[in-house]
Amino acid sequence: MEACERLQRIRSHVRLVPDFPSPGVLFRDISPLLKDPDAFKAAIELLETHLRATYPRIDYVAGLDARGFLFGPPLAQRLGIGFVPIRKKGKLPGPTESVSYALEYGQAELEIQSDAVEPGKKVVLVDDLLATGGTMHAACELMKRLKAEVLECLVVIELLSLKGAEKLQPFRCHSLLQYD
Ligand SMILES: O=P(O)(O)OC[C@H]1O[C@H](OP(=O)(O)OP(=O)(O)O)[C@H](O)[C@@H]1O
Ligand SMILES: Nc1ncnc2[nH]cnc12
Q1: Domain enclosing residue 69, as ranges
Q2: Does the global pTM surpass 0.90?
Q3: I need a surface site. Which of 14, 22, 65, 104 has the fewest CB within 10 A?
């Protein structure tokens, strides 16, 4: 499958759900994408191709709770590197670093185990979707605390009107699909 054919396949498997989880939010539901093995494979392959073409060395893929856990581990496997979970508050044992943040429809706190990434390691942060960028920004802050280097914030879907990529600067952001 060509890259644009793959993108089209991915796009056609993202479902729009108005007013979820709260009134006024247009929710982009990736469930149909996960359910279709070819579409899901196309997404993972495009993420992998992009990373291989862009970075000579990546040490870890770090995924954001919860939907970053769907894309991060298969991607890390294909790259032959480790996966690190960044979780919502209270889920990780042992010493942790935590950062609170605001997202498109709420407030939450993200955590990482203090020894999850060694200082100086090169990390790609992965999630399904970038909206306001609050969640990804918090993940970047966690990486700063561990003295890791964020190569890029990588998402399947970017909601351009919410200007998440601007909020993340100077960190780089890459998305497969963009919506207004
Ligand atoms: O750019 P933002 O405005 O921060 O929004 C994006 C975040 O919102 C969603 O996660 P959510 O917090 O709904 O949690 P979930 O993955 O557990 O469903 C999505 O998976 C991103 O992580
Ligand atoms: N509009 C949206 N659709 C799906 N996930 C989201 N996370 C934040 N905003 C979202």
Answers
A1: 3-179
A2: yes
A3: 22
